[in-house]
Amino acid sequence: MEIEKLICNKTIRPDIYIETKKGNKIAIEVQASALTVSEIKRRTTKYFNEGIYVMWVLLFDYLRFYEFKKEWGTKDDGTWGLIDATYVFRDRVRLKEFEVFLYSAYYRDLIFWDIDQEHSQDFIVIKMSDYWTDDKEFRKDGEDYFYGGKQSKVTKTISFIKKDVTFDKFKPIKGRIFNGGNYDIPERTILGFATEPNETRRR
C-alpha cells in the first residue's frame, strides 16, 4: 500500500494505491471536496485503460443522512405518550452533482468513511434508489387537473445504510457503458460492495 503515489504515467495521484497478491491494482480516491463530473470521468477512464480498480470514497456526515424522530402511541400502562425517540435514516437525500454520477457508476451504491469513526469503525455503504415526486391532483376554474409524479434528477431515496463494512467486502467489478439518465457512464473497473446486507434502520 502506498500513499499518494503518482500512477498512470504520472497523471493521477490517488490517496491510496494498492497492489494485491492476486495481481489486482486498486486506487482509493477519498473525496474531501467536490470534483467536477468531467474530472471523475477522466480519472475513471484512465484507471480503466490502465487496468486499475478505483474506489471512490466520500466523507460521511451523520446528520445529512439521519434525522431524529419521536414515536407516539399507547404505552404499556394504557396511557398515550412517547414510546420511542431515536435517530433513523432519512427517507431521501439530495445528492451533489458528482455524487449523482457515482450513484450510477456504482450501481446505486455510495461508499463513505467517517473520519471521527464515531458512527462506524470502517466503511459505510449507502444503497439508494430513484425518488419520484408525489402525484398532484387539483380543480381549477371548474376543470380537474392531474400531474403524475416525476423522477428527481438529484434527490434519491435511501434503501439502507450498512456500517462497519470491512475492505474484504468489496470486489473488483468491470462495468459496461450505459446512460445513467443524467450522465453517460463510461467503461470502468471499480471496487464495489459485494455482499447484500441487512437493512440498518436505527443508530
CA distance, first residue to last residue: 32 Å
Structural class: mainly beta
Broad shape: flat
Number of strands: 16
User: Helical segment tally?
Assistant: 3
Could you estimate the helical fraction of the residues in percent?
10-25%
Rounded mean pLDDT score: 88
Q: Please mark out the parts with pLDDT under 50 across 5 or more consecutive residues, or reply none.
A: 197-203
The biggest beta sheet, please?
8 strands, mixed
Radius of gyration: 21 Å
Major beta sheet, strand line-up:
1-2-3-4-8-9-12-7
Written description of the protein model:
The chain has 203 residues and is mainly β. 13% of the residues lie in helices and 49% in strands. The strands form five sheets. It has an eight-stranded mixed sheet with strand order 1-2-3-4-8-9-12-7, with helices on one face. Helix 1 links the parallel strand 3 (25-31) and strand 4 (52-59). The two termini are 32 Å apart.
